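ARCHIVE CARD
Drawer: 12
Card no.: 0347
Subject: one protein chain, sequence and derived structure
Cross-reference: see card 0346
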Amino acid sequence: MNLPLHPFFVHLPIGFLVGALILHTVHLLKPNWICRVIGLWLTGLSGVSSLLASITGQWEFTKTESKDYSQEIVQILEKHQLMGNIVTWGTIIFFVIWLNMYFKKMDDHRIDKVAFLILFILVGLVLFTAYLGGTLVWKFGVGIK
């Protein structure tokens, strides 16, 4: 069975991170409307799912090495791989630090504001990574038979 799993898993970390940013923003604007930790747990889910997306993406990347792609496609592939790794490990490290800080200083709401800024950056990075992946598929047909 040669089913590409990367296109399935890649949407999960994007959705979880964007959802974390949106719901964490709602919490910052209206603290009584939503639980304080929803963004934290969605970030954790994004870390786990981005690890799956990264692993399956690496499997797909090894398949492309046997094909003769142009230099432009190879550069985009490598940039997409690098950005995916940055998002994956950045999300996981951020989640662990945020969780640790949350439990150590539960009453300090400055953590929520810093978390918002980092979530905003991570969402920007994951959307740029998604743009690169979309360019590979829709413009160059990478991964499509």
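Annotation on reverse: Helices lie at 6-9, 11-29, 38-64, 71-104, 110-139. The chain has one domain: 6-57+70-138.
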